[in-house]
Amino acid sequence: MAYVINDECISCGSCEGECPVSAISQGDAHYEINADTCIDCGSCAGVCPGKNGEKALAMCPVKEHEERQQYFDYGKSLPPKAEV
Predict the structure, then answer these.
(1) Of the candidates 33, 19, 37, 42, which has an alpha carbon nearest to the alpha carbon of residue 70?
(2) N- to C-terminal Cα separation, the chain
(3) Strand pairing partners for 59?
(4) For 34-60, what is each residue's pLDDT tens digit?
């Protein structure tokens, strides 16, 4: 099992900074998690505000992550966000 970020993500970046193994990166629509790197610690879920109070992170089997890996890889290739 590993965490996956769903469409409740508001792209705040809180989860990325909380991940101890840098398994989270910005994707096109929202942040993505690399299931191969995720250690299932739950740190990201603890800080996630989500939309309307609904968390954007949930546990799911690693097999369900395979199709989303391309989005994580793409996110890692993007330049860092400008400071706000």
Answers:
(1) 33
(2) 34
(3) 3
(4) 888 888 888 888 899 988 888 888 776
